[in-house]
User: Fold mitogen-activated protein kinase kinase from Aegilops tauschii subsp. strangulata.
Amino acid sequence: MIQLPCVTYMSPERIRNENYSYAADIWSLGLTALECATGRYPYDVNGGEADLMLQILEDPSPTPPQHMHSEEFCSFIDACLQKDADARPTCDQLLSHSFIKKYEGPGVDLAEYNKSVHDPAERLSQIAHMLAVHYYLIFDGGDDQWRHMKSFYGQDSTFSFSGETHVGKSDIFDTLSRIREMLKGNSRCEKIGRVMEKVYCRAHGEEGMSVRVSGSFIMGNEFLVCADGFCAEGMLSIVELSPDILSKQAGHFQEDFFMEPGTAMGCYVISRQELHIGVS
Assistant:
């Protein structure tokens, strides 16, 4: 399954592409509350999204400065930001926490507020861009990240490439692994990087979506995100590419993803995928 939250508030289990529950939202709540209290996001985002994911996985969970915040607040944040999802409190437990009890007051209808400010088309676009970035970061990432790619597919998923159709997560993973090795080459100068130039999306069925990603391949370069009107933090945009890099274009690609809701909340499975590669 592919998880599509904002990377900055992903819980560790979501980054590892594991099954998850509402405990992932408890993690996000803790980060959001800590950011509101301190006025800054608690992780270093200057290294880009891949580096941020590693910080969340490997660094100790952030904590509020105890000399600046109440004991109740520090306890609340520490409880939310447990690395082990099973160790985080439930929603009911948090509602009974001393920090919440301390400031109980009139209720707010968050559901109605969300409806008043939510733009479905904009949200769909955000999800599509996040999917593309998440997918290609893993595709071009290390082997430890790559092994999670298999979980993006179901047993009935299909992947079409070069006139052949592959069915099931194992067959698709093996085929993608061969393509990945081909693009990596034998040395850094032979590596083929990906320039993601356009991302299109639309609703597919009642709950699914279709996403089309198109762009170019460039010899001897790293993965670049250059979607129209969008750039992931820490990645170059198309206007920042030098003419020398653009002259190394080795081909172009178009990839279509057809997504269906997975069994876990907020997750999608790639039900059908089609890859087309052209040589310049």
Observations:
- The longest strand covers residues 192-204.
